[in-house]
Design a protein that fits this description.
- With 219 residues, this protein is mainly beta.
- It is 11% helix and 45% strand.
- It has one helix and 18 strands.
- It has one helix at residues 2-26; strands at residues 43-48, 52-57, 65-72, 75-82, 85-89, 97-106, 109-110, 118-121, 126-130, 136-140, 147-155, 163-168, 173-176, 178-179, 182-183, 190-198, 204-206, 209-212.
- The strands form five sheets. Strands 3, 4, 6, 7, 8 and 17 form a six-stranded mixed β-sheet that branches. It has a four-stranded antiparallel β-sheet with strand order 12-11-16-18, with no helix packed on it. Strands 1-2-5 form a three-stranded antiparallel β-sheet, with no helix packed on it.
- A hairpin with a 2-residue loop joins strand 6 (97-106) and strand 7 (109-110).
- The radius of gyration is 25 Å and the shape is elongated.
Length: 219
């Protein structure tokens, strides 16, 4: 009998825990009674297309939305409202810094302040191949508003193995004759990407990576 009663108690406690979890997930948000604060973990840029930018949202309640605002430097260029996935139709430009932030909405009313900003860069490096005794790549970092420095990384793979080569200021150039201690080879594809550091300290993702290769030159 004691064993049966103990089992019933355990089952009852488990049911109460499940009910509590369910209520926590779906409990409604009152615009009058509750303020929601969104952090960097609640939103992220997911893709930059030729005419649009997409964002993912992970909101703390499943019955609230968020306004997503996109800025080119300080100018508002797009805005949308979404639950978990939102798209802003805007044609981004090269060598620009874009900021975005979110604000929680419940039943058409704001229930919190704007979040901190995140950023992404459409930096496009100028790459020049030089031939001679040794194959050389000259990289020029474009001048961009609000950029403090740019760290250049190279790899022989498009999505892994990137190692830091140089950190340059906007408008500066640097030449390179090798990667990871090995001279550049003909007809082999190499990849280079730039990690942008902003003057205002906002963390910044880079949208594009670039590739290059050398041809054989016969005398």
């Amino acid at each position: 009998m004691k064993s049966m009663n103990l089992r019933k108690i355990v089952v009852s406690l488990f049911a109460v825990m499940l009910l509590g979890m369910f209520l926590t997930v779906v409990r409604p948000v009152s615009a009058e009674a509750e303020t929601v604060t969104l952090t960097k973990k609640n939103f992220a840029m997911s893709y930059v297309g030729s005419t649009y930018v997409s964002f993912n949202l992970k909101l703390p309640f499943n019955n609230i939305q968020a306004d997503i605002a996109l800025y080119e430097n300080t100018k508002l260029v797009g805005k949308t409202r979404a639950y978990s996935y939102g798209t802003i139709n805007y044609k981004v430009k090269k060598n620009k810094t874009y900021f975005y932030r979110v604000r929680p909405v419940y039943q058409g009313k704001y229930i919190g302040k704007w979040s901190v900003r995140k950023a992404f860069s459409t930096i496009n490096l100028k790459l020049q191949q030089k031939y001679g005794g040794t194959r050389t790549l000259k990289v020029t970092v474009p001048k961009m508003v609000g950029v403090k420095s740019v760290t250049l990384q190279m790899s022989t793979s498009s999505d892994s193995g990137f190692k830091t080569w140089k950190t340059l200021k906007p408008g500066k150039s640097k030449s390179c004759r090798s990667i990871n201690g090995k001279k550049f080879e003909s007809y082999k594809t190499y990849y280079i990407r730039a990690k942008v550091k902003l003057k205002n300290g906002v963390s910044c993702d880079t949208v594009y990576s670039q590739s290059f290769h050398f041809y054989s030159r016969y005398q």
